[in-house]
């Protein structure tokens, strides 16, 4: 076997040991431009191992230099390389796409689903930076990216120096406060069923009174049409009933609740939240995650410790974002509460926004109708106002 140099044959000492065994079994001679290496003798094998160890050390040294250089560039706010990004042409804002991002901020606070935002962007003829159609998941990833707020990231985490986010060399689409409020609103939504499956008001919102699982929507053919029904996702025998009467009952109850004299005072009052303190805490958590990455790069901690520490800090960060969002209701809910005609304001909302409003105002538990009962009662659909 002929190679240019021995370090071109294998980059890892363990691979060399395997090759030595195979070469001995198959009586293979090794030749290189720098000279032959006789693997059949102990001296030749020692020479090969030394060369392999030196090559490995050079690789590790080069990797350490590159890692340090990448980290330094990140701490200076400089890009490693310029990649296409939605909302930009190079480092400058693209007006149409930038406006779409700003519109999305308002939609998020209104409770519009990510799937619906993707649909609206697509209707405007917008695609991702790579020319692909938008989906709910790609919208979520994009809006949560700190780059939108002009924040430099390193290993997918915001770079923090002296307790402050490092600003990138590009013009931000959003200011940091606006971006943090938006990501907190997204975090507060938690896990939901895919929007394509949520075509009814209470699907993914109400819970089964028997097992506590979510209620989903389904269909049952009735003649030439399909009637929408609510079903327990775990066991259809728990809940399986026509959706329309339940929706009508819940909406009537909502309109009646919001029509009470104390509604504006009670529902407009948000919990006292130290927004500034929570944002400082979020910055500190990002800084600690950056410290974990540096400790791993320096060999101070193992990959297992890195993963465990990062997972724990991300959990704490999610809780901070949830507390940030708890101090404010969505804009759609605020407008509905203050509306002089609640029924008309409700009917004007999209289904995804209506579900967001219900999540913020009430917890809904659904029970079976019972034998012989054809109408909806407060015992069957229990509404706990928050």
Automatic annotation (TrEMBL):
GO terms for molecular function: DNA binding; DNA strand exchange activity. It holds the Pfam family Resolvase. PROSITE patterns: RECOMBINASE_DNA_BIND, RECOMBINASES_3. InterPro entries: DNA_bind_recomb_sf, DNA_bind_recombinase_dom, Resolv_N, Resolvase-like_N_sf, SSR_resolvase. Residues 75-192 form the Recombinase domain. SUPFAM superfamilies: Resolvase-like. Residues 1-77 form the Resolvase/invertase-type recombinase catalytic domain. PANTHER family: DNA RECOMBINASE-RELATED (PTHR30461:SF23), DNA-INVERTASE FROM LAMBDOID PROPHAGE (PTHR30461). This is Resolvase, N terminal domain.
